[in-house]
Amino acid sequence: MAKKAVTVNPRKAAMVGCGFVGSASVFALMQSGVFSEIVLIDADKAKAEGEAMDISHGVAYGKPCKIYAGEYSDLADASMVIITAGANQKPDETRLDLVHKNVGIMKSIIPEIMNTGFAGILLIVANPVDILTYVAQKLSGLPESHVIGSGTVLDTARFKTELGEHLSVDSRSIHAFIIGEHGDSEIAAWASANVSGIEVNQFCEMRGHFEHDKSMREIADRVKNSAYEIIQRKRATYYGIAMAVKRICEVIVRDEKSILPVSWMMHGEYGLEDVVLSFPAIVGKDGVETTVPIDLSKQEVEKLIESAKVLKGILSELDLGEKK
Predict the structure, then answer these.
(1) Which member of 146, 166, 175, 182 is catalytic?
(2) Is position 146 annotated as part of the catalytic site?
(3) Second label for 153, Cα 20 to 30 Å away, from 71, 248, 249, 266?
(4) Residue-range domains of the chain with CATH
(5) Closest CA to 132 of 92, 200, 85
(6) Per-residue pLDDT tens for 211-269?
(7) Contacts of the segment 99-103: beta carbons below 8 A, 24+ positions apart
């Protein structure tokens, strides 16, 4: 049984897992100033201590923030717990190949967190993020809206970057989403993509691009395969996801009610039930408020349903007998 919930400190976060992704994310969060206290937790306590020391030495040139290594008991009053702990994705290994190893890790982490009385927002970043977010929701007993995954927030940033380079325009002026699985069955939602309100193909023609189908395939493929490309070259991806984590945390702590393609439970959207995947949603201090409907083509809807089937197939193989 979880302990009685304690008073939450809205400016405190905990990072569980201090590998490349966890430490890069804490570094990004330290610079953002969104938290005034961050506790680092890792199975290798010395690793957590070293990362905390190293990042702390940059605080003099950043925003005030207490960063230290701790135990699970130190996260009881945190407003957010970010989980990056898990086995790393290896070259030629898909995110879904990680599932059984990392589900086992999640089963050991979640009870430790909940036994402290934690009552904040749980942000899952470890892969496969959709599966692990589902597992965390079932095991934690927290409201579904409080257990979210980083989902396709990074994929969407990659999508905007590729489109920005293709069109020679600021990627921040592009409104487009990757939806579905954070992985091989992800979908580029072209039907709703626009550049400052101008339909994307129309904007392409303004910039001298007319082979739309070819360009759309190539851009979507580059987005989908970018993680594999990076892993092949440097064995891990961590800076891009660190910025995605920072952005999600900012949105929650500041109650921005921004629209992000986070991973969370679907309840009837496009006929999808009991599956966690990414779709644009309003995100604020209480986690996910609601899904935001966007225009999808018939083909994109079909691909979204197929993406959900891939994930549900994996979920059907899991033993979640420990759920509360």
Answers:
(1) 182
(2) no
(3) 71
(4) 9-149 (3.40.50.720), 153-315 (3.90.110.10)
(5) 85
(6) 999 999 999 999 999 999 999 999 899 999 999 999 999 999 999 999 999 999 999 99
(7) 99/128, 99/131, 99/314, 99/318, 102/126, 102/127, 102/128, 102/132, 103/131, 103/132, 103/135, 103/318
